[in-house]
Amino acid sequence: MTRTALPTLTLLRSPRRALVITQYALLLTGSALVLVFGYGNLTVLLLFILSALLSAVTHTTLALSVQNIAQARVETLDERQRIARDRAFAAALRGLTVCLSAAWGYALLAPLLGWWLPPAERAWAALWGLAMLAYSLPTSVAAWTEADLDRERSLA
Amino acid sequence: MTTRVSLPPVARRTRRVLVLTAYLGYAAMLLAWTLLEQPVRWLFVLPLGLAAILAMGMLLMPQLLGVSEGADEQLDERQIALRNRTYLNAYRVLGALVVLSALYYMLAQGGGWWLPRSDLETQAFFWGSWLIALTLPTAITAWTEPDLRE
Fold first, then answer.
1. Distance CA B36, CA B10 (A)
2. I want to staple B55 with a disulfide (CB 3.0 to 4.6 A). Which of A108, B15, B21, B59 is the partner?
3. Which of A108, A128, A135 sits opposite B95 (nearest CB)?
4. At a CB cut-off of 8 Å and minimum separation 6, what does B75 contact?
């Protein structure tokens, strides 16, 4: 079977890591704005949409920088990429489980301990944040952990 | 130094029964709690809850089942590859559940569909989703990994 070449974008590990941090800072900011201020305010709504769009652009850049291994069909990946993809998903699963446990734990404890909770009509923003986290995490883990192949080849 | 896990012979059929007991037992316990009246309720809720908790406890300790789980140092290459592939499948299931739950919540708020509101419903949702997140990889491995003699 002919392997389809994936679009690529060469980025060193440090800019990739900076993009991962930027992506989640944008995601967190957008969700937090709606959770705290609600979406009745037009400025908040526009900032939320802007942060979502920028986060999507950042995620796409990251996906291209790691040959989109998290979403690519298995036959388009070589052996090294398959191992990297499986490792990224394994680490992402642990990360997502920790995030879900923390979110659920907070939601269960908050009413008992008098901590802040958003009104029910704004809770979708937290779930939206979790959903985007679940979607993006394997790619982010791969972008964070993948070595600088070109640099390693030149050193070797 | 690497040490390999010695695999006790837990047959695949037994592992599958365990997985079904964990998830169906939890669902059946919630149904019994919702549909039955006191004092019959406890006759069903207690054994079902106990069975589900024990089964989930087993799934949280994969070494008891002899399946390919654990730290890299405890597994050989085949087991590491199998474990990572299982985690990939588990992530896809869990990730899809998270995305679909968020989508459902957004639509349900606008459309007046069912959402967990009472204490029982909220607790059942939180504990259920939490336990699924924790046990899913082991459940998939326990369900799919063949018996050693195969």
1. 36
2. B21
3. A135
4. B4, B5, B68, B83
Angle, helices A79-113 vs B119-144, to 10°: value is: 160
Tokens 């069912």 label which residue? B114
Nearest CA to CA, how far is A12 from chain B (Å)?
Answer: 25
- Backbone phi and psi for residue A148, each to the nearest 5 degrees, phi listed first: -80, 95
Which helix (H) or strand (E) segment holds residue A20: the answer is helix A13-37
Check the CA dihedral B5-B9-B12-B18 and report its sign. Answer: negative
- Give A7-57 pLDDT, tens digit per residue: 677 888 899 999 999 999 999 999 999 999 887 888 999 999 999 999 999
- Structure ipTM over 0.85, yes or no: no
The whole-angstrom separation of Cα B12 and Cα B142 is 7
Check A90 against B84: CB less than 8 A apart: yes
Contact (CB, 8 A) for A81 and A7: no
Residue B137 CA to residue B150 CA, distance in Å, equals 22
8-state DSSP, A41: S
A151 CB-near residues (< 8 Å, 6+ apart): A12
Provide the shortest C-alpha distance from residue A112 to chain B (in Å).
12
Residue type, B67: V
pLDDT digits (tens, 9 = 90+) for B59-104: 888 777 766 666 666 777 877 888 888 889 999 999 999 999 999 9
